[in-house]
Amino acid sequence: MSAGVRGRAPRVERVGSTRLRILSMVLVAVVLAGMVWSRLAYWQIAKHGQLASQAQAQYREVGTLPAVRGAIFDRHLTQLVVNTTVYSAFVSPDQVPTTERDRVTNGLVTVLAADRAKLTTTLASGAKFAYVARRLPKDKADQLRALKLPGVGLEEETQRSYLPGITSGTTLASNLLGFVNYNGDGQYGLEAKYQTVLAGTPGYISSYRDLANREIVLGSHTHQDPVNGSDLVLSLDANIQYASEQALADGVKKYHAESGSVLIMDPTTGGIVAWADYPSYNANDFTHTDTASFKDNVASYVYEPGSVMKVVTLAGAINSGAIAPDTVINDPGYLNVGGYRISDWDHRNHGNINYTYVLEHSLNVGAMKAMQAEGHDAFYSYLQGFGLTKPSGIDVGGETCLLPAAADKLADSQYATAAFGQGIDVNMVQMLAAVNVIANGGKYAPPHVMERVGTKVNPLLLQPQRQVITPPTAAKMTAMMESVVQHGSGWTSRVKGFELDQAGKTGTSQIPVNGQYTQDVWASFVGFLPAQHPKFTMLVVVRKPHVDGSDRDWTLNDGYFTAAPIWQKIAQAMVVDWHITPDPR
């Protein structure tokens, strides 16, 4: 019996062991199934988007549909910038048979003047693609097509082309317009400022293809049309721009100056009619241009305006009732202010004179006494009103300003020198807009270049202009500026037929270096005509003129001797081109 008991025990152990093994196998199966399902869930759910994108990338073909960059027009809808088709030549070395390499090399060297040694290396590389030459004109592309060289192709591209300037080395209004690089990005000037609206938005077209590059008929297609860039219409006049560049270049050369700039404004709207710099550059050949040439000296350069500032000083003093054009003062030739002796440019005792005489002969003492008569606070308030304590806001990139200190931070001597335009910095846009207040009946016209983007009018043209001085004050200052041309320092600016109907003011200021004034100067002239109903306001600035003999007499570099004759030449051209006639008197 005991033996029987001993015989059943092993069977119980075997049955239990079998059940354990079965249970273990089930558990393993469950774990394995869980792992499989979790991995399936991971790849099909969590990684679905990534896998789908990778699969699409293997079979999807996407083509870019480029947007056409907007054109730029002047006020008469003369196109200043055009889009032209150019061609880039490329070669696929792996598609050029060994026996054809010499013919391909000779053809590319003959038509494109390509580097033979470099071509030989490229063709031997077996690469799939290499550019040989970029942005070829159509005639070169046609010559290359005619050779039917194996493995050689042409790729169409769009390039901006700018109108020729006064010489073969320049293009019209290049410092204002800027240029577009080979990536289609606007650089400097209006091309950079309005990059977004000019460039537009490219579209695309996509489809699916199999490994043999055959289109999959049931595959999805996506198509997005490009949005072409908007056109710009400027206030610029291409004819006046050309005349300005020509006269400016002649003047800078004649007076051996470092550089010069011209800015012309429509008095009633603030629209810029001409924006010229010399030296300038060729925007069609920007890759071979020193980057220093790209800088614009009209808005991106500050200078001390000198006696042109007396227009602002006297206008403010007249408007505040502190002085009148016929108010008599005594001018001994100097004035002691804040511990400094500040003199007239000629160091002469002028005795008893009125403020019209002060402006005619550009006397510093008279300007300082006018400022003192109205007081520091009123003087500073008029600087603000004339737009000289903040950027002009001109719609061109890169405006540079060096603004004056707060009113309570300026010393007496700083107020004194600011009254005649030294120790205060402006850019040309600020200064011209300030003087234009006189031409515009006392109102400030915000300066701008862009008139319309597409069909949308510049919002500045729809805003009311602020009144800086009263119309009677503007009329008095106009008469004083007429007297400058008729009897004073502005005589070299007289335009034939407008000798009695032209307003102007000269300016000359010494250029400081390391805190010390040098004998180099900024010479300038600002004016408008006809005086009573102006058609334009113009500012000319010549930097560091060196007239023959000026080493003995620095006044030869003065604004009346260098800048005013350039102003006169441009104004004469405008009178003819715009058919301007003097006002009957």
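(the above was protein one; protein two follows)
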Amino acid sequence: MGLLKKTKNMNRILYLLPVSLLLACSSGKVENKETADLHYPQTKKVDTVTTYFGTKIADPYRWLEDDNSAETAGWVQAENKVTFDYLSKIPYRDKIKQRLTKVWNYAKCGTPFKEGGFTFFLKNDGVQNQSILYVQQGKEEARVLIDPNKLSADGTTALSSPVPCKGGHLLAYQLSKAGSDWTDIHVMDVKTGTEKTDVLKWVKFSGISWKGDKGFYYSHYDAPLGGHELSKKNEFSKVYYHTIGKSQEKDVLVFEDKEHATRSFGAALTDDERFMILEGSETTSGNSLMVKDLSKTGSDYKVIVDNFENNYGVIDNIGGQLLVITDKNAPKYQLVLIDPAKPQPENWKKIIPETTDLLQSVSLANGKIVAKYLKDVTSHIYIYNLEGKQENEIKLDGLCMVDEINSTRKDSVLFYSFVTYTNPVTIYKYNLNNNQTSVYFKPQIDFNPDLYETKLVFYPSKDGTKIPMFITCKKGLAMDGNNPCFLYGYGGFNISNTPRFSTSTVIFLEQGGIYAVANLRGGGEYGEEWHKAGTKCNKQNVFDDFIAAADYLVAEKYTSHSRLAIHGRSNGGLLIGATMTERPDLAKVALPGVGVLDMLRYHKFTIGYAWAGDYGTSDNQEEFNCLIKYSPLHNVKEANYPATMVLTGDHDDRVVPAHSFKFAATLQEKNKGENPVLIRIDVKAGHGAGKPVSKQIEEQADIWSFIFYNLGVEPKL
């Protein structure tokens, strides 16, 4: 669940060198209508072998891991040339881009958050590359506070995590460049809109927690060696306190752990600033917890949890006790009060016990508890008093997802976002005093949701487990087994694949396509047991769930295998890589995006070691024996693969692009069919966050062009 700050309102080269003689084009052509004139680069192979527990594993394309080499840059240029030459010949590519741009061009608003007398919100008028941060004081007209579009000519500088101080008059925020996870923290005077001199470097995966208006806590890594910023392992996270107006060199080290290089830490304060909460993590699941009572001079950290076996999120201080949401002894989470003097579980007071539904998040508003639940992958919001008695429910319609709920402890009005697969994000305002809901912002889009419907089905996986799946399409669409279908999945890291509106999906739905989202094990849809059922040596369950989803769609005549496209990103890219190598006949089109594809070496780059809680690592013999069975890179065999476009970004420093490079090279080597195998490498782009709208539209136009072309669908545009 993360640190207390996550429950607060506001917390939220590949230098293309000329292709040299290092690369040569293959001499053969693949003779069919789609791939005629398609020449893949002849990628160099090296004799690199690693032995794992007596098993020798060849890694002939390991040289592509060097993101600083001219060879790698030349390979990227050669592959992109093949890909973009192919895409340029799709006759309706430009029309798809035009339609996407038109649909994209509607005003979007983020969920407002308040501090002091100020209300902050992000807004995009349509196709601006980056959303703009606005501020409104009282009843005055909202004004622009930060416009990141003015910070780079190409729109690749992105704003994230704007956090105001207690009175709202100072704002700390983070800027990233070209899609990297590295950020700089800046500070602004909200009243005047002027920048302070404060600029903090080498920040990654950090919150910002103010202490009054004098300074704030943040997390930091030592600066990496030049040239290795995007690939070096991130180790020895430290927590600092920064005083406004002082240089970063004078920041005070608050906490470090010199014995555990791969543990990360973050600090946050309770609303009254009495307690500092220090959270530690080893992987993406489970955390330790310490607390320091700042009201007592010289107090030290008190250990609440000293292991990483469960998840704990501190909501706030209630009368000297910590209000905590946790899955300890409650896989679907419970809300408890923990006395720092007696933190043992037997001393906890249950405020909201575990139920059959998943308790996703908790916030406080006007002396009430606002709890968001997930019931069969659909959101519900309930209001409780501080003793845990349910008082009201915020009524929500249909199969929906509530993303953000922004409230302050003393305010009777809260804001929340509401979205479905056919309706973009609408912002609502809810008054706790009278239980009334009103629309704060409703977007106007060139798309009629009334023509479409979403239903939730449950299908059996290989072992009989019932898996939910959302299916969206035109009302009255004939299920004759011939419809083009797009199946998306993720299945990992306790992340719930809840309903979301995708602007780019509109074009597929308009052409009679079926959009399906499978809620696989490994996600968080049904709590920690559902998550664990898809981790480490249980990971095959995730792939079985996805394969069963595709087979269900075919059996029920929604589509056929020859009319099916499959896609996933990040951990979902692993999903696509694993399923297409296990079942090359599963789909006609496969799109593994920014995927974790080399499961034996993923933990050796940037923050990859933190994923070991879900994957295990090749350093452990039992886990190696599981990983090698499904690792996409190591399971590419000679086969007739789907039409494939691997997607990555040259500045992806979360899942480094070497995963995609090596996988694409191996696929091109071993593909025996006539379908194209391409890799699209986005320049000045990272894992996805902060990508400018112009680049998003270009990427989505290429994706849908590739899908339509290889499914044999000519869109009527």
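Reviewer note on protein two: The first strand starts at residue 24 and ends at 25.
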